[in-house]
Write a structure and sequence with these properties.
Blueprint: H1 3-19, H2 26-32, H3 36-48, E1 60-64, H4 69-81, H5 84-102, E2 110-113, H6 118-124, H7 128-140, E3 145-146, E4 151-153, H8 165-172, E5 176-178, H9 180-183, E6 187-194, H10 199-210, E7 215-222
Parallel strand pairs: 1-7, 2-3, 2-6, 6-7
Antiparallel strand pairs: 4-5
Helix pairs in contact: 2-4, 4-5, 5-7
């Protein structure tokens, strides 16, 4: 028997028993049985389809198709509920991608989350890319240098999902500032949970290059 199939069956049994006591959220139910095998399959398909994705290139891309049901659930549980299983499986996928980048660099890249404005952070209490970066460092920290202050959001912007595609580029323009004393002369890997138009990554890259970064990779969990 395929070990992944056995794990999935056991997972479903445990979920069923637990659900009798504590009914889960719909997305939570989707996420609890997500395996790396499922995500890797979606990852391979996303890579295969990347030739038709204008956002995809070596230095800026997403790993999973956001519109897929389990990916949408994964992002929702990570973004709004800090679901630990969602964080763990997302970290495993991102860590594999980042190790590939690190293997091409002569020195340790800096790891930077897409920043959240202080007003937004006060409302939500946490920044999802921060959580991903901290989890990545726990898993492969010897390969990276965590620099949470490399990028700062200097202008409070409207959430990207609330505005039209055309308005998103203007919304984030000149909204970030990079710290030259941290990034100058370094390769930077920027992490976000979701990318759609790529406008946030474009702004992060602009700020980092302007501050003296030599190379910038922008990787999103989903897009």
């Amino acid at each position: 028997m395929n070990p992944y199939s056995l794990v999935e069956k056991l997972c479903k049994i445990n979920v069923y028993l637990f659900d009798q006591l504590v009914p889960p959220r719909k997305n939570e139910y989707e996420v609890v049985c997500i395996t790396q095998e499922k995500l890797q399959k979606l990852r391979r398909q996303a890579y295969k389809d990347s030739s038709n994705n204008r956002l995809y290139n070596k230095h800026a891309h997403s790993l999973l198709p956001y519109r897929h049901k389990i990916v949408t659930a994964l992002v929702s549980e990570l973004k709004y509920h800090r679901n630990q299983h969602a964080i763990d499986v997302a970290t495993d996928l991102l860590a594999e991608e980042l190790l590939g980048i690190c293997g091409e660099e002569l020195s340790q890249p800096l790891l930077a989350p897409v920043p959240m404005h202080t007003e937004r952070r006060a409302e939500r209490g946490y920044n999802p890319p921060d959580i991903l970066c901290e989890s990545i460092m726990h898993k492969i920290g010897s390969s990276l240098i965590y620099t949470p202050d490399a990028l700062k959001r200097i202008r409070h912007t409207v959430p990207q999902q609330k505005i039209t595609r055309a308005a998103r580029i203007l919304n984030v323009r000149k909204s970030m500032l990079a710290e030259p004393t941290i990034v100058r002369g370094h390769t930077i890997i920027v992490i976000d949970d979701v990318t759609t138009t790529g406008s946030t990554f474009h702004e992060a890259r602009r700020a980092l290059i302007q501050a003296g970064a030599t190379r910038v990779y922008c990787i999103a969990l989903a897009g």
